[in-house]
Known about the structure:
Blueprint: H1 2-8, H2 30-33, H3 38-47, H4 66-78, H5 84-97, H6 101-119
Amino acid sequence: MADNLLNKNKGKRNLLERKEEVKPKQSFNRSTLYTVNESQQDNSDQNKEAPRKKEKSTTTTIRCATNTSHRLNALVTSFNLDSVNELLEILLDNYEASLTPDERREIKTLLEVYQRKSKK
C-alpha cells in the first residue's frame, strides 16, 4: 500500500508556471536614491563647526546596564553628536585631564599593553 502511494505522486508535478515575466514599473539605482540637494547642504555647512576628525578603527561591543545605555544615547542626542563613540571619547579625554601625572602614566602603560594584546 505504501508503494502505491509513492508511485501515485510520481506522475504529478507540483511546479508553478508563470504566464509572463514580471517587471517592476519603475527601477531605481543607488545614485538616484541617495542624492542631496547641494544648495541646502551649502547653507547648512555654514552654520556647523569644523568637520570632526574620524578615525577608521575596528569596533567592539561593551556590556553595560540598559539604563546606562539609555543615558549615553540621550547625551548623544542632546549634544548632537555622531555616535556614542564620540561621546565616550569626549568624556574620557575630560576624565584623563583631571588625573595626576602618575595616574596618566599608568593609564598610558596599560593602554599600550592592551593595544599589543589586541594585535596578536
